[in-house]
Amino acid sequence: MVSMVARNGRHLQRYSTLGRRQVVGCIPYRYDGAKLEVLVISSQRKGKGMLFPKGGWEMDESIREAALRETVEEAGVKGIVEVGSSPSEKLGQWSFKSKGNDAYYEGHMFPLYVMEQLEFWPEKHIRQRVWMSVSEAKEACQHWWMIEALDKLVVREEAKPGKSNL
């Protein structure tokens, strides 16, 4: 059962030892035949481009739970968050400055193989979602660190048997 209400507030928010807010997200992906496609969502701020779902990692959840929650809330998809004990399963960790203020954040991104696309989700009325090719997503995405995460996803997928030339 998916909650139809997005979490809000920062009272349970995690911060790094440097005092940076920790955010987690996913790059939702699927294959259309042999072609890799990724799901991007619109920013909540008008005219601020597209991005991958991400948001705050809270004290009462694991990093995997936070990544999946944010992806369901913002993009309305469910799937397999590919995370485990190996650091190679996470696409990476980045330190970045917010575009809206002077705060620095610590961002963690994971691949999410999409198994289900929901008709209704908490942020349906404030975000658009669009499946794109990797090259289209690189053009549309507004965050350099998310583009780096996408590059890592492509390398990871190309390394899988039978998945060359994405």
Automatic annotation (TrEMBL):
Keyword tags: Hydrolase, Magnesium, Manganese, Metal-binding
CDD domains in the record: NUDIX_DIPP2_like_Nudt4
UniProt keyword Hydrolase present: yes
Gene Ontology MF: a single term: pyrophosphatase activity
Any one GO cellular component localisation term in the record: cytoplasm
Cofactor(s) for this UniProt protein: Mn(2+); Mg(2+)
Domain Nudix hydrolase: 19-154
Keyword Glycoprotein applies: no
Domain of life: Eukaryota
Family: Belongs to the Nudix hydrolase family.
Database matches in PANTHER family: DIPHOSPHOINOSITOL POLYPHOSPHATE PHOSPHOHYDROLASE (PTHR12629), OS02G0734300 PROTEIN (PTHR12629:SF42)
Protein name (database record): Nudix hydrolase domain-containing protein
